[in-house]
Design a protein that fits this description.
17% strand, single chain, Rossmann fold
Amino acid sequence: MRKNFYIETKLGQVHGRKYGQSDKTIICLHPMPYSGGYYDTFCNDLISQTNIAAISLDMLGYGQSSKIKETISIEDYAFNVIEVIKSLKDSGELSGDITLLGFHTGSAIANEIAIIEPELINKVIFVTYPFFDAAKRAELLGSQTKGAIDESIDCLKGMWEFTITNRSKGISIERAYENFIDQVKNMSVSWYGFYSMFNYPSEERLPLLQHVPLIVNDTSSLTEPTKIAMALVHSSEYVELEDVKGGIFELNTDQIIEHVSRYLGEEHWLSVLS
């Protein structure tokens, strides 16, 4: 069962979704330019297959969280999520062990949160990590396009083709359409998250992580960057999902949940049944 909530923070209102109740909770940090709804399939499968609860948040500027008028840093996103976590703990909505799970941009935010408040977080999971060295970040910043809205339907063409036309086999048109709408909703600020990522010095920040993260890699443009990230943390549990090339949080939830359950020391009921 999913419960929606809103938390007032210094930078604006943050929207979240809560799935289940447990003494172990995974807080899911979404890739941009989507929202926390990106994890809906995963979170529902997680609570049906384990005793682990989940929370997915909309980062500021995305989904149903407050809009922001200018770009903010990965550190700003991290401090904002920390404020949300502390508010949920103070209200009794969140208790027990807290695990952060990030995907793409969300992995960098998870890393920064764990560095800033290591005692607040018990475990960290990166499902791929967008590592870019200084030269690559400068290149990406120089070529970055901003989400322009105009009167021509052509401004939506690339987004439609990526999310709908070329979606991974097995993802329903309905689910792909939900993700498309997520992007359209955030279109004018869709580039904010990328800008933050391209300014984040992962080569300096990853070695500061005190936790031993679970790093889940797939077959994508981030396969090699994720391996570089793994080499930069002092220690990790590393898993490669072979032949997983897209739609990982729609089509491969069972695999992710199996590795996550083992990492958290929890029983995965599907594994027991098989």
